[in-house]
Amino acid sequence: MTIEDKSYKEKKVISIGIVSELTGLSVRQIRYYEERKLISPQRSTRGTRKYSFSDVEKLMEIANKREDGVQTAEILKDMRRREQALKGDNQLRNKMLEGQLNAHFKYRNR
């Protein structure tokens, strides 16, 4: 995935009505998932919710888990665990890159 791909997927430009059509979820269900902190739409200056393509994907994942009987509290815990793991992976990757750059340029931290 390129930086450009990520940026378009993260832009909050889709209205709740379109998200409802794309996901098959009712507007009420989408708002409920927002209340449960499973999704975080952006608000326009007029207060309307705006979602990204990543949000749509996340809502589809939530809907699939709910169909399998998973409670929203469990889904939230799982999402937080994955975010923490990703954060740890990114920190490790950054340390490794820093080490490679330091080795390449023969930098020593004193």
TrEMBL record:
The lineage of its organism: Bacteria, Bacillati, Bacillota, Bacilli, Bacillales. It comes from Bacillus capparidis. This is DNA-binding transcriptional MerR regulator. Keywords: DNA-binding, Repressor, Transcription, Transcription regulation. The keyword Transcription regulation applies. The keyword rRNA processing does not apply. InterPro entries: DNA-bd_dom_put_sf (IPR009061), MerR-type_HTH_dom (IPR000551), MerR_fam (IPR047057). One of its GO terms (molecular function) is DNA binding. Pfam families: MerR_1. Residues 13-81 form the HTH merR-type domain.
